Structure formats: structure tokens, C-alpha cells
Structure prediction request, 351 residues.
Amino acid sequence: MSHEQTEQHFQIIRRWLMALQQQNLPGWDKIDAVLEDLQVTCEQMQTRLEFAEAAEEERLQQNQRLAAAYDHYRDLFQSAPIAYLVTDADGVILEANGASAQLLNVPQAYLVGKPMARYVAEGDRSAFRTHLNQLSYQRDSQIWQMTVCPRGKQPFATEWHIATLAVSAKPDVPHPNGQIEIRIAVYDLSHSQPENSQLELGALMQPSNLKPQTSPPALPLPQSLDGLRVLVVEDEADIREFVTAIFEAHGIGVKTVSSAAAALEALEQFRPDVLLSDIRMPDGDGYSLIQQIRALEIEQGRHIPAVAMTAYLEEDREKAIKAGFEAHLHKLARPIEWVELIAQLARQVSH
Prediction:
């Protein structure tokens, strides 16, 4: 009902009341006062409705402007001659433009949802995962040099310009659980620098000023790591893959399982030298697992050194040690810390 129609109804009601008032019936003054209040309320509601309609119209126009701007920048993204990709903190591709599809020789629609590590040279994947893991705690832009493996073509050297974008309500807080987006611009170096086409990556992350930086020499492996076997118990597939890459890069044999029950089965078949187990898992936590293992060892007369892994800074190291673990390690520790800890435990076994 429009404002004019409402006003017409009030005028009709007032004429009826004036006709009834001529009969000198009691109470009409109160009715007239109530009607006046009702009319004032209706006028206020009408004013608010007009403001709401104006605000809604402004929102619609703003949404149209935003949609037009989005389409504009989406077109720029898709048609850019440089390969651009967006991934989450785990390196899973969220967006990829046409140039990136051409660079990787993969249909554009197929790239979304795939791990970026799939298109990194096998020898560089360990360094790639390490840098990816550290990005959650580093907000500065970076430049990496990596060898890319396009589908069905020869690997070639590339330069990646990395920027991260926090998608949490608290951008100053680290986001180890996928709370960032990673923007990647990939430049093909094979044409301008053919001598670098076989570039090795092992930690070749360059600073943004492009000053040369040499990789630190590999640490000598302890003799006790030769033929070492490690069982990893972790319910998150990305962590299992990350840990496997770290150890296999140093010649350590690795078997991974996703639950405590699977770990108990693997103990006899794999017979590990060292056990690494997550603390918090949905199907049986690491505390109960190590207690079961220690009980079995009493019967079998053997002992497996064990490391408690956790992604939670508040996890109690003393609690893990009391439960039966020899050591405690945060999942965001540097790769060399993982290797050094395994080496230390291996030396204890050998002695």
C-alpha cells in the first residue's frame, strides 16, 4: 500500500468518526487520539521503508559495479601472457590462467584441485614442500627458482614470484592449516638462460632483491642412517607426504600409515627402527598407541625409539615423554631437525 492510499484510508475513517460523534456517544475522543497515534506510526514506517528501498537500490548498484570489476580483472587474469596460479597453503591449485595451462601443457580446467608439486621436478619437491610449509609464517614476497615438469615435455627452469594473502579475520596470526592463499607468477627461464635448464633446486629459494644465494652444503649423514627404516603414523596425507620427502631425500626408508590400528599391523611387517606418531588422531591418539606398543615390547623383548609429532604449540612435551616417547617434535620444525633427531635416536639404538 502506497503512502497516498494510506492517507486516503485515514481520511475516510475520520469522516466516519465525525458522523458518529454527532450522536454524542461517550469515548470518541479517546478513539480519535488512538487514530492520530496510528497515523503518526504509519508515516514513520513509510519514511523508514523509503530509506530502506533507497539503501537496497544503492547496494544493487554497488554489486553491479563489483561484478563488472570482477569480470574485468578476471579477463585480465585469464588473458595475461604470464602464467599465474593461486594455491592454498597446502599447494593445491585453486585458480590457473590460460598461460599456466599452456606452460604446464595441461587443460586449464584440469589444473584446479591438483597439487602444484605434481608439476615440480622430482628432485626439487622436497625443497618445494619445505618452502611451502614455511610460507604460513612468512608474509614477505619471495622469488624461487624451480625446475618445472610439463606433461609430456622436457623439464625446464622457471622463476616463481610468490606472494601470500591471509584469508583469516586475523591476518597477523600464522595460518598453518590452510588459512592463506598463495599467488604465483611463473616465468620460463629456459629460453633466456638455456644453460640453467637443468637447474637443481634443493633449497634454491631466492630473496626478492634477486641477489645470488648459494645453497648450504648438505650435512654429512651419520653412518647409523644407512638402511634406517622409519614408520610414520599421521592421519593427514599432506604431512605424510612431506615427512616422506624429507627422509627419502636422505636415504631413509619410510612407511606411512594413517591410524593407530594400521600402525600396530605395520610394526611386524615393516619392523621399523624408529617410530614417528602424531598425537591427535581421530581413531586413537598417539598416547594410547605408544602405551600399547610399549606393552607389546615387554613381551617381545625389544624397544623402538619413538617421536611424538604435534601441530599444537601447547602440546605438553612432558606428557608425551611420560607416555613412552623418547622425543617430541613440532610438525613445523625445519627439515634438518627431523633428520638430526632420527640420527640421534639411531645412534642410541646402535649403542
Remarks:
- The chain has a mean pLDDT of 76.
- The first helix runs from residue 3 to 21.
- The chain has three domains: 3-76, 83-206, 223-350.
- Residues 3-76 form one domain.
